Amino acid sequence: TAPSYACCPSGGMVCARVGFAVSFVLLLVITYGGVAMGTLLFSIADQYPNLNAHVTVDANAHGGFPAAPVTVVRDGNGLVHVEATSIEDAVFGQGFAQAQDRLWQMEFQRLVAAGRLAEHVGKPGLKLDKQLRRLGAGRAAELMCTHASAATRRNLEAFVAGINAFLRSDDHARPIEFYFMSTSWWPLIRHEPNDFSPVDVCYAAKLLQLQLGGNMNWEAERFRLWWAHSKSGNASYRDINTLYTNQSGMPDTILTAQDLGITAADVATQRAREEATFAREQQLYESDFATMRDSGRYGAPYSDDDEESNNAADEKPSYDLFEMIATHASNAWAARAANAPACGASDPHLQINLPSVWYYTHLIVRGDGANASRITYETSGVGMAGIPGVHIGKNQHVSWGITMAITDLQDLYVAVPATTNDPDTHYRLANGTELAYTIRTETIRYKKGFLGFGSVGEETMAVKETIYGPDVAPILKLPTGMVASVKSVILQDDTTSVDAVVGFIDPTLQTTSDLCRLVFQRLRAPAFSVPSADLSGNLGYCISGAYRDRAVGHTGMWPTLGDGRFDDSATEIPTSALPQLQLSSTAVGQRGGASISAANQKIYPDGFAHVLGYEYIPPLRGGRLHQVLEDPANRAQLSNISLHVSLQTDTTSNIWTLRLRSVVAAQRDNLLPCLTSEAHMLLDELISWDAQTPIGSTTPARLWNWIRKLSTVASPITSTVDKAHWPPFLFTPSLLNTDPQLAAPNTTAFYHRLCQSSDLLKDGSAGRVCAPASAEAQRLPSSCWQGGPAAP
Q1: How far apart are CA 335 and CA 349, in angstroms?
Q2: 605: closest CA among 245, 256, 246, 264?
Q3: Which of 46, 84, 423, 485 could hold 469 in an S-S bridge, CB 3.0 to 4.6 Å?
Q4: What is the DSSP letter of 395?
Q5: What is the dihedral of CA 660, 661, 665, 666, to 10 degrees?
């Protein structure tokens, strides 16, 4: 039979830690080595909870939870199904099950968010603690929790009551990692977590916001490139911008001009403002920032040692916040054929982690007594460990998928040193006002001693803050002496996100409109892109996030000056003005079927009234979704689950079919003089390739290696930003978008971009191609074709 739990309110619970008592007695009579081995074997055996037990829980000890019996069942795949007679009790069961399965992960998350990891893992956690403390993430999470509504707080309390019920149960199983997290002087005593509270759920939510909602590292990367190479003339503001995706005129946006009512006049207005903004920002870098660069006030960039410890040289590798930032590869869509039910799909891609970031849950609420067979509420899907509810999935009425929207919720503001007061203690605004930095002191404890057990060290860190936020120059490796504050929605007072995070289990969510209005448009961070479908046949799309219009001269791609001249709009963009779409069942029927899909690409076409960011991913997967879902031949199949399964398992390489094949095929004869006979054969194989990438296929690997060659950037660039090579999906779009009509190959544009990529920084180590045969290409400067490897 499937293992199950039954948690019932009753009069008490007795916990006897017999295993540890026995272990302690053994320690008195056998050698240390024998006990160490025995304890290790015991810890391995004792980390698995008993999944076949009847557990009696004192409801009075857990805030009145559960109010009635709760059943937790795991199916043959180990997935959790919880049945209860109220949503609160179902959430209690979810917390209990998560504690059985993911206790170490939940403990790790709350320690990280609170900036207390080093207390339990030693100095390898010190760098991450300093980063989170510098940001003030823990304080932001605690403040966010104070805004929970009564209903949200009740669900949070039910969830943590379930976790704590497991901690206090007779099941003493604990993850093996806890043996390496103890703060005891004795190395064989395992860590025992404190009871969880609603604040710990807010810690998990805040950590999620940080992992999915930031781009300050991208801003800092551009700035570091410019600071290191601009004075010598090797990389200007304009040059560095060409290394990143140009979003102007980007095809395959999630929503169309028709969806958003954009006119040709809107496009002209938006482009004029955008040109003015880039021109003003370029001027800012060529004047004010150049003066700062040449002032002699600033030193070499901060190093990892500055943010780890006073004795970092001999330390083990450290945890790093920016290694936890999510990659962008998710996709989701909703579709419906005319006069048929809607289908939704979500394919969320984050880094591969053990344990997974996702936790599957199926919650069922039934009536009680004579109504026990009637389901009053049901939801299923995946959620983030440590947070109640289902975050990607469905209830009885509506389904939703999420991807990262890649909109911009963070900005860096560089302080201008004071001229009247001490510039180390004051900064200057453009109106002449000089303000004192606010100094916040953080004391961080870390475990040390023999094997890290038994003794505690402390380090104190002083954090400067401006009116924009905390100074993050040390964690972004900006020049020493510089103060760069991050202004982030994630770190500001957030009055609605906690209700949104828990709001997925709101039983009143019945339509795509409800989902946007009650959940995602109240979620201030992170920025999600959300296609949805409901039982009535409606399709919907909206984004989460809180936005303000930036000043002319501030793109958000680069740090700006924190002197008041480039502040955001004083008011937020209303949610009604953000990109969104609601297709009624009638509208879908009139279209003969419809779909909405998202894959991290640009949300809106040129001409939209607000600029929400410039870091969108090129529409490779997004273009493929459009290609399949909008194919007239598939219109009648949009409600056929097999179409969506095939699309989720699709192996077509869009970077080849949409971006490269036509160009390479047109240049075949020009490339032949550069190639060996073997390379000639491989080129022809590539041109005739069907763009499918099944397991075992070698052509995709050859294509990827060739793309990396096209992405070659001079070594001074990659070393400045700690990259082994330039990310192909960053650089290739610039390479390929030189001619916006790549479907009609332009020889000069193609080779000119190759030339520009090699000569960008006047560095001979960049990759170059040999001279092509065509007279058109030969008219380009000879420097394009000298001194580099042959292509492909």
Answers
A1: 20
A2: 256
A3: 485
A4: E
A5: -50
